[in-house]
Amino acid sequence: MSLRIFHTADLHLGMTFRNRGYPEEVRQQLVEARYEALERMVELANEVRCRLFLVAGDLFHRAQPPREAIARAVRSFSRFQGDCVALLPGNHDYYDGYGNLWKELRELAPDSLLLLTDTVPYPLHDYGIDAVLYPAPCHRKHSRENRLGWIRELAERPASGWHLGVAHGTVRGISPDLEGEYFPMDEAELAGLRLHHCFLGHTHVRHPNLEQVQGALFCFSGTPEPDGFDCRHGGSAWITTLEEGGVHCRAVSTGKFRFMEISRELRGTADLDELEKELRQAGKETLVKLRLSGFLPEEAYNSRRRRIDELRSSLLYLEDDDSALAMELSAEFIAARFPAGSFPQRLLSRLAQKNDPAALQLAYRLISEVKR
What SS3 state is found at 347? Predict the structure, then answer.
């Protein structure tokens, strides 16, 4: 009999987004979007009739979120129409036995909410699901050792059709973790657990980065709602189907907002026009960090600030830097500003003929400073 599971992680409810100086209205929308993403995922899971909704860590951004944030997440999970919601502590919302988060979750949780806080098998037979979960919960924010060892050392496993790992941490060669301090795992180690599939969290980019994958040993779901300019995808999760033919994972898009980092070298008015068109099409749910370089004709250069400022109403947020953008020094421009036959006119005209914009700009800047 097949089993369909909704796999997500790294939602980070409670992120404040105070790090970039966003306008307050923008910041509030980004905070709210993470709760909306959870509601959206529950709806998606219901639409495809998932029986298990699995969060592989970092549901919350901190180990001590406000009680209302916890209650709001529980209310979203209560709308899941399947049999069980399983939550794993990640390195941000870790379980050490002392904090209030997991205690309050137990107080507020309906019977269908299962907290994977201990390193023991969790049979799902009481939920009518023929599967056992083997969790590797985080017990602190950083660790150079993962928590998979107990699975390898387990003398006997509960009888079940499906044996499934749930872990939060990095995988060497896939996840960024230069210091090896985020519960690092490796592929051989995961294979040695002899499980049908491992549901992983921590890496905010989906892996494998495919729309569908068959027979994967493990998958990272990625964050379901983009959280910054280093997150260049639209948010994702997996719908994983376990059946006689094996494990099949299908990616689903889950995010609302999109972050774009654009570095563009402009070589004329047409390039500026094209950029403006591109950003207007990006839409009101897009945040853009824009860096401009290159050269523009005088008229386009002088109007660039007005045009960029007008774009702000087409986007949720625009952060721009045009300090590397310069005005194109044409022969007409040089002739209009320097007397014919003068040293500046002759030098700049010669550099313009050599088609060396960088040298021409440097010379013009030096001459302009001397004139002051």
Answer: helix
> Which tens digits make up the pLDDT trace of 226-237?
999 999 899 999
CA gap 241, 249 in Å, rounded: 6
Structural contact between residues 278 and 314, judged by C-beta atoms closer than 8 angstroms: no
What was the pLDDT predicted at 97?
Answer: 87
CA distances for 73 relative to 14, 30, 94, 366, angstroms: 11, 16, 16, 61
Residue 128, phi-psi category: left (phi > 0), alpha (psi -120 to 50), beta (remainder):
left
Q: Are strands 317-327 and 258-266 parallel, antiparallel or unpaired?
A: unpaired
Q: Which residues of the chain have pLDDT under 70?
A: 330-336, 344, 348-349, 351-352, 358, 360-361, 363-364, 368-372
CA 271 to chain centre: 29
Interval 18-53: pLDDT, tens: 988 899 999 999 999 999 999 999 999 999 999 999
Structural domain including 353 reads: 258-371
**How many angstroms separate the CA atoms of 176 and 12, rounded?**
18
Please give the helix or strand (H or E) that residue 47 lies within, else none. Answer: helix 24-47
Number of domains in the chain: 2
List, as one string, the DSSP characters of 228-269: STT--S--EEEEEEEETTEEEEEEEE--S-EEEEEEEEE-SH
Check whether residue 358 and residue 341 sit in a common domain. yes
Distances from the Cα of 179 to the Cα of 64, 110, 145, angstroms: 26, 39, 12
CATH number of residue 212's parent domain: 3.60.21.10
Task: Indicate whether 227 and 273 sit together in one domain.
Answer: no
Quote the tokens at residue 331: 């022969």
Task: Report pLDDT for 340.
Answer: 77
* Residue that terminates a domain, selected from 191, 225, 253: 253
In three-state secondary structure terms, 37 is: helix
Total-model pTM: 0.89
C-alpha 366: how far from chain center: 44
If asked whether residues 235 and 262 sit together in one domain, one would say no
* Dihedral sign, Cα of residue 262, residue 267, residue 270, residue 272: positive
Burial of 293 (0-12, 13-18, 19+ CB in 10 A): middle
CA 365 to chain centroid, in Å, comes to 42
